[in-house]
């Protein structure tokens, strides 16, 4: 492909956003090349590990239990971001997500009802049949049938630009460097969560203790080039989708099976055996993504979820079995925590639990009274042996520092002008919608909606 100048749309990246852009552009009549920096086995970035996407819909379906309107979606987004979102782009995403459920199925993706214990998302989120990798494979099959060309192990390391006009890329492959020219470019190469040195620019040395849920290939190479070439940034280096994941997970690519969804069913303590936040603040889909940042703020970036036998079957388990013991003291010893401190914390919690009817499907009001940090929902005594615990560390899914875009997914330059033929979609521009916080499935929504917008816009420009 070296020196190719008849190419309409160059898509950089290989996940959901990139494939939606490539398919949309190809269906609009454009010639399309996808450059994926990872090997074929690791193609797709975080899409490989996802399970669902959040879209508005008017009624129950074969896989959704009820309606989820635009106003409710907006309220949920506003709540988790605390208002740090571009309202125009966020509402555009929400509105267009309504049609995405049909469009994505037209590309071969299939859905299924949510599984038990999956964050109570049966009404709001559509789950992919076979998970994220099956969804990704379906998009690749459709792209290939349409004539989209795909190259793997092809990392874009530089851009030839004149102001806001893209001309060509420098691509690093196993056999050396080459140039790929195109009439338009769609940047959909994800964030920089696998670049620990870049994370340290915002987090400092504690980033060494972070675990990366996705592949080691999301290093932000293209993002760095774009920002260096004058594309306006959005967000900051410390904002990201970070959850509490099993501390025994590998440094990279542990994926969704290392995430822990049991916080609401017990208590969370730090290395000193002390609680540090309300485990029952809100439903888990709206609050699970705050725990990564909170664990990052604890000593040595480690914490422990403690619960008892009555909760063991209420959530999806991790890849790793929980640590168990017949008493809280013995459990603390296995965790290498001070037994007296953990026993005191659990006893104080149990004594503070107020009478109530436990129901994890609603805000049940089962709470504590008299603690410095109260648990405001789903509080019940931890007293049924055996006792269990999971050690957790911050698990970084994707970063929010990215490129500023408009409603057409065109990149904006630092001088205030709009790029002429440069578009962005997915995690590389997610900071426009997610200034902070996260709600389950929104990353896939951003990728698919803006991927389709970017692909159609790039094709229209290339063929004008």
From TrEMBL:
Keyword annotations: FAD, Flavoprotein, Oxidoreductase
InterPro entries with a match to the protein in the record: CobZ, FAD-dep_OxRdtase_2_FAD-bd, FAD-oxidoreductase_2, FAD/NAD-bd_sf, Succ_DH/fumarate_Rdtase_cat_sf
Record SUPFAM superfamilies: FAD/NAD(P)-binding domain, Succinate dehydrogenase/fumarate reductase flavoprotein, catalytic domain
Cofactor field: FAD
Domain (FAD-dependent oxidoreductase 2 FAD-binding): residue spans on this chain: 8-435
Protein name per UniProt: FAD-dependent tricarballylate dehydrogenase TcuA
């Amino acid at each position: 492909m070296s020196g190719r100048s008849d190419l309409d749309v160059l898509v950089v990246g290989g996940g959901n956003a990139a494939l939606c852009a490539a398919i949309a552009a190809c269906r609009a009549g454009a010639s399309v090349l996808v450059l994926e920096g990872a090997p074929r086995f690791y193609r797709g970035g975080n899409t490989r590990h996802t399970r669902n996407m959040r879209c508005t819909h008017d009624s129950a379906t074969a896989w959704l239990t009820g309606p989820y309107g635009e106003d409710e979606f907006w309220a949920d987004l506003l709540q988790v971001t605390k208002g740090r979102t571009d309202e125009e782009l966020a509402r555009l995403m929400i509105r267009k997500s309504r049609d995405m459920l049909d469009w994505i199925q037209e590309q071969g993706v299939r859905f299924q009802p949510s599984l038990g214990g999956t964050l109570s998302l049966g009404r709001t989120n559509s789950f992919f049949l076979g998970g994220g990798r099956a969804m990704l494979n379906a998009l690749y099959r459709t792209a290939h049938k349409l004539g989209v060309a795909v190259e793997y192990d092809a990392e874009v390391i530089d851009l030839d630009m004149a102001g806001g006009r893209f001309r060509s890329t420098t691509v690093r492959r196993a056999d050396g460097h080459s140039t790929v020219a195109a009439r338009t470019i769609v940047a959909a190469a994800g964030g920089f969560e696998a670049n620990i040195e870049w994370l340290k620019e915002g987090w400092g040395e504690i980033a060494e203790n972070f675990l990366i849920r996705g592949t080691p290939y999301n290093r932000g190479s293209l993002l760095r080039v774009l920002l260096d070439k004058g594309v306006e940034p959005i967000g900051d280096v410390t904002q990201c989708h970070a959850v509490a994941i099993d501390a025994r997970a590998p440094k990279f690519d542990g994926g969704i099976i290392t995430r822990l969804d049991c916080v609401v069913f017990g208590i969370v303590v730090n290395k000193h055996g002390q609680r540090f936040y309300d485990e029952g603040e809100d439903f888990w889909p709206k609050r699970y993504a705050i725990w990564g940042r909170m664990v990052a703020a604890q000593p040595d970036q480690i914490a422990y979820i403690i619960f008892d036998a009555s909760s063991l079957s209420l959530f999806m388990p991790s890849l790793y079995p929980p640590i168990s013991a017949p008493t809280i003291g013995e459990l603390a010893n296995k965790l290498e925590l001070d037994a007296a401190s953990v026993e005191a914390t659990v006893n104080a919690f149990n004594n503070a639990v107020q009478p109530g009817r436990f129901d994890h499907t609603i805000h049940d009001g089962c709470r504590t009274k008299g603690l410095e940090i109260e648990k405001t929902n789903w509080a019940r005594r931890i007293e049924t042996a055996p006792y269990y615990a999971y050690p957790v560390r911050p698990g970084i899914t994707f970063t929010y520092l990215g490129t500023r875009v408009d409603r057409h997914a065109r990149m904006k330059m630092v001088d205030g002008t709009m790029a002429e033929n440069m578009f962005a979609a997915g995690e590389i521009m997610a900071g426009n919608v997610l200034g902070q916080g996260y709600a389950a499935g929104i990353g896939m929504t951003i990728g698919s909606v803006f991927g389709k917008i970017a692909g159609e816009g790039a094709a229209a420009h290339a063929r004008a």
